[in-house]
Specification:
Keywords: DNA recombination, DNA-binding. It comes from Candidatus Erwinia dacicola. InterPro entries: Resolv_N, Resolvase-like_N_sf, SSR_resolvase. GO terms for molecular function: DNA binding; DNA strand exchange activity. The chain is an alpha/beta fold. It has one domain: Resolvase, N-terminal catalytic domain (Rossmann fold). The protein has four helices and four strands. It has a four-stranded parallel sheet, sandwiched between helices. Strand 1, helix 1 and strand 2 form a beta-alpha-beta unit. It is globular and about 40 Å long. It starts with a strand and ends with a helix.
Length: 121
């Protein structure tokens, strides 16, 4: 199953998630499986992200518009994706600098592994 996660940084309504929503729909995510937050990516305790991560099951794929939607801290990103991988859950990034990340493919696993190695170094 494909699960989508969206985030905008401001909760005051000055930002919208229309581009993210459209991209997730185009990627095949059913709107019933969308999770979203209106909070800074620096916050790790976002309710939408927490609910999204809990909803994911083995063989699901988490789809995000850009990698920074999950979070801005590289260590948090690495830990989150490492946890997903350990649970048998894939991650696919649709656009931006992380668009080569698709942990459901060998090439995507390699790219993510390089990022993880850089964090460890």
């Amino acid at each position: 199953m494909l699960i989508g996660y969206m985030r905008v940084s401001k909760a005051d309504g000055s930002q919208v998630n229309d581009l993210q929503r459209d991209a997730l729909i185009a990627a095949g995510v059913d709107v019933a499986y969308f999770y979203e937050d209106r909070a800074s990516g620096k916050q790790e305790d976002r309710l939408g992200l927490i609910a999204c991560l809990k909803a994911l099951r083995p063989d699901d794929t988490l789809i995000v518009w850009k990698l920074d939607r999950i979070g801005r801290d590289l260590r948090h990103l690495i830990n989150t994706v490492h946890d997903l991988t350990g649970r048998g859950i894939g991650l696919k990034v649709l656009t931006g600098h992380g668009a080569t990340i698709d942990t459901t493919t060998a090439a995507g696993k390699l790219v993510f592994g390089i990022f993880a190695a850089l964090v460890e170094f």
